[in-house]
């Protein structure tokens, strides 16, 4: 029986690199529904987050239940609506505590507790609760990444004093997945240069093992591996473009030093980096390098901006008046559309990878949410939440669930139970609930 934990190893610039192997037919039973030894295909859990909410009239579907409609701000997920659940109308209850703007809502959704005093996280976030159960047998217990370019944009925490840091760039995420720590007894820790890894290609480093492994495969698995190797090389080629010196242009002159802007704020640049990071993250999931992840598209006080503009998404939510004719903030709604377009890209990336009888997305549960509903007022009622994927068939999909003011912890409790966390009650104070959402449980 072929070992499903197979990895290919090599050396780049004196440092070890590893390339995981996806779940090929030779690892599976004849129906492609389980591993050859009878064990179930792995199920993954991750979060995908964006800041500053949405426009309720343009995001919330009019129809509840299955076959929901797609409002303008949800167009980004339309291709995969049958694999996406939408949750509207659920609330974060403060029990009289201060609503700390963009902190209270996301903390309530992720921990089941409203921040007390100066604290942000009084309880562990949901990704860690799930990771403690299902993330202990992979190379990485979890992977946290932020398309914003800021490692501080991470919302995974054991407590306020133990907050994770995000991997801030596609290059760093690539190095994290393909590189391996190497301990030099004379000079301390040595890490491979990501630029050297990209230009050399990890595929060159594992050529001998790659050739020997491929000889053992059937025709279908050989074709699958060639597609897989091609996807890795395409990622490397895209990353290598960022390392090349641009060709000289006579008409180009160096302008004066512009006012510095935070990294990763321009929407097109953030979207480009996010697309690369989605592909690299998908590699890590498909090759069972991790089962738990957190992907930040924009921070809670969203610093996204249009190209050529210094006005941020967050600033616009407070400064832009409602359009007299449309009765909503036009620019704010545009930013929300960009966020949902990128969530669609993330889901489509996972769904493009075959796995067993379905796709990688089918064996994943992606929990997407924001921090507020109407950002100008920091509204805690109706914060947008979604799930993508069916967790290996454990969850029904294509459903719009209306909360009617019930606590957001019903969603978090349901997700934990679907991920086999032994919990029958979750949340604190008025947020405590033992009532899961049975209509989405398969």
Give a short synopsis of this structure:
The protein is of the alpha/beta class and about 450 residues long. It is built from twelve helices and 16 strands.
What does this structure look like?
This protein is of the alpha/beta class. It folds into 2 domains: 1-40 and 193-243, no CATH class; 42-177 and 265-440, Alkaline Phosphatase, subunit A (3-Layer(aba) Sandwich), CATH 3.40.720.10. The chain is built from 12 helices and 16 strands. The strands form 5 sheets. The chain has an 8-stranded mixed sheet with strand order 4-16-5-15-14-3-11-6, sandwiched between helices. A hairpin with a 2-residue loop joins strand 12 and strand 13. The chain is globular.
Main beta sheet, described? 8 strands, mixed
Described by its quaternary structure, the protein is single chain
* Helix count, DSSP H or I runs of 4 or more residues: 12
Query: How much of the polypeptide forms β-strand, as a percent range?
Result: 5-15%
What is the averaged pLDDT score? 85
Structure class: alpha/beta
- CATH class of the largest domain reads Alpha Beta
**What name goes with the CATH superfamily of the largest domain?**
Alkaline Phosphatase, subunit A
Describe the strand arrangement of the main beta sheet, using strand numbers.
4-16-5-15-14-3-11-6
* Percent helix range: 25-40%
Q: Write down the CATH topology of the largest domain.
A: Alkaline Phosphatase, subunit A
What CATH architecture of the largest domain do you see?
Answer: 3-Layer(aba) Sandwich
Distance between the ends: 32 Å
Q: How many DSSP E strands?
A: 16
Which parts are unreliable, with pLDDT below 50 for 5 consecutive residues or more? Answer: 181-190, 246-262
Number of domain modules: 2
Give the SSE string. Answer: EEEHEEHHEEEHEEHHHHHEHHEEEEEH
Which geometry do the CA atoms define?
Answer: globular
| Radius of gyration, CA atoms, in whole angstroms | 22 Å
């Amino acid at each position: 029986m072929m070992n499903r934990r197979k990895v290919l190893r090599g050396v780049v610039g004196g440092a070890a690199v590893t390339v995981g192997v996806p779940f090929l037919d030779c690892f599976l039973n004849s129906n492609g529904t389980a591993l050859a030894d009878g064990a179930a295909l792995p199920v993954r859990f991750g979060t995908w987050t964006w800041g500053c909410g949405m426009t309720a009239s343009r995001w919330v579907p009019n129809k509840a239940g299955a076959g929901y409609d797609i409002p303008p701000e949800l167009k980004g997920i339309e291709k995969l609506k049958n694999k996406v659940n939408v949750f509207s109308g659920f609330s974060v209850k403060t029990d009289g505590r201060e609503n700390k703007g963009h902190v209270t809502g996301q903390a309530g959704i992720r921990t089941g507790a409203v921040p007390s005093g100066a604290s942000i996280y009084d309880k562990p976030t949901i990704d860690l609760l799930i990771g403690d159960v299902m993330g202990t047998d992979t190379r990485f217990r979890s992977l946290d990444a932020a398309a914003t370019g800021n490692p501080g944009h991470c919302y995974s925490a054991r407590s306020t004093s133990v907050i994770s840091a995000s991997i801030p760039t596609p290059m760093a995420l690539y190095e994290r997945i393909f590189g391996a720590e190497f301990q030099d007894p004379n000079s301390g820790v040595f890490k491979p240069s990501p630029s050297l890894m990209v230009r050399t290609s990890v595929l060159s480093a594992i050529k001998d093992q790659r050739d020997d492994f491929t000889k053992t495969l059937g025709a279908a698995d050989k074709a699958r591996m060639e597609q897989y190797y091609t996807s890795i090389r395409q990622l490397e080629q895209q990353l290598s473009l960022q390392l090349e010196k641009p060709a000289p242009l006579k008409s180009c002159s160096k302008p004066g030093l512009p006012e510095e802007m935070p990294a990763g704020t321009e929407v097109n640049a953030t979207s480009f980096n996010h697309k690369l990071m989605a592909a690299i993250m998908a590699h890590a999931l498909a090759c069972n390098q991790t089962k738990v992840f957190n992907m930040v598209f924009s921070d809670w006080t969203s610093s996204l901006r249009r190209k050529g503009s210094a006005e941020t998404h967050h600033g616009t939510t407070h400064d832009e008046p409602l359009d007299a004719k449309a009765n909503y903030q036009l620019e704010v709604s545009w930013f929300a559309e960009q966020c949902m377009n990128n969530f669609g890209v993330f889901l489509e990336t996972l769904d493009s990878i075959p796995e067993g009888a379905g796709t990688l997305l089918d064996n994943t549960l992606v929990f997407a949410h924001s921090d507020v509903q109407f950002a100008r007022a920091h509204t805690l009622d109706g914060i947008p939440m979604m799930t993508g994927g069916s967790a290996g068939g454990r969850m029904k999909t294509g459903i719009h669930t209306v909360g009617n003011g019930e606590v957001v912890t019903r969603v978090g409790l349901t997700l934990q139970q679907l991920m086999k966390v032994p919990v029958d009650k979750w949340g604190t104070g008025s947020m405590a609930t033992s009532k899961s959402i049975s209509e989405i449980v398969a």
